[in-house]
Write a structure and sequence with these properties.
By secondary structure, the protein is of the alpha+beta class. It is built from 3 helices and 5 strands, in the order βαββαβαβ. The protein has a 5-stranded mixed sheet, with helices on one face.
């Protein structure tokens, strides 16, 4: 049985780029919603005083994450002008292809300082179908 993957990334907003970043977030969210019907959740959050952006996504499986990385690559690059990725945390058991895609995304948007941390699920449950 496949388990969902919970994705969280954090980025620093570049000075003077907040308005462009907001427009880019809305554009990317609409793009993903239209093209990735299996993606369960996809949200952007801003902490303006700290100049940080957080992305939270829930994928039903690695195939969904792999598709997201493939389709979103050019859109991620466009946002890169307005932010510097610091961390990606992935909760669940991704495929090797998904891990490779996440490493490439971290390098592209954050350089060698960006980190990818994989967290293995050990116990718990979800009631995602009833959420909402």
């Amino acid at each position: 049985m496949t388990e969902p993957l919970y994705y969280v990334d954090r980025s620093d907003v570049r000075p003077g780029g907040l308005d462009e970043l907001r427009a880019g977030m809305r554009d990317l969210a609409a793009f993903v919603e239209e093209r990735e019907p299996r993606l369960l959740a996809y949200h952007f959050y801003l902490d303006e005083p700290a100049a940080t952006m957080t992305v939270v996504a829930v994928h039903p499986d690695s195939a969904s994450l792999e598709l997201h990385l493939e389709l979103g690559g050019p859109k991620f690059r466009a946002l890169g002008a307005h932010l510097r990725l610091r961390t990606i945390d992935l909760y669940g058991r991704p495929s090797p292809a998904a891990v490779a895609g996440l490493r490439a995304k971290a390098e592209m948007l954050g350089g060698p300082e960006a980190t990818l941390t994989l967290h293995t699920h050990e116990a718990g449950f979800s009631r995602l179908a009833g959420a909402g």
